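Q: Got a minute? One more chain.
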Amino acid sequence: MAALDEVDRRIVSALQADGRLSVRALAERVRISRANAYARLERLTSSSVITGFTATTDPRMLGLGTSAYVTMSVQQSSWRELRERLRHVPEVEHVALVAGEFDVILLVRAEDNDALRRLVLERLQAMPGVLATRTSLVFDDVENRPTLPHGH
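A: Always. Here it is, folded:
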């Protein structure tokens, strides 16, 4: 896809702030015609710049009172299979393969500390290829969504 122009960036920023904007409201906010907004929105979604629209939630209000980052050391040859296994663990919100002291970082959400303990000790550590884990409890979540750099 060609580089995003300033109008594309304003569209993405507006939708990051409020993903429920109608195309009419989006066009008004970005100061373009509705036809232009429809065309640009279609191009941004079909080219995977915008990958979806979702509701953000408060995990505590969903009964998930404990959050943690779990770092994992894994056998290098097991990454693909492990990634597929982790995809099917409902408590795992995010998986990242990283370089450095460990190989994988997970953001997990559980009902309470007991559920977190069972998740880590009984399920994650038991997965083939997992050599070690380290768990860091999250005391407070601070939402900070990235914004697009302007002029690129």
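A: The beta strands are 66-74, 92-97, 104-110, 130-137.
Q: Perfect, thanks.
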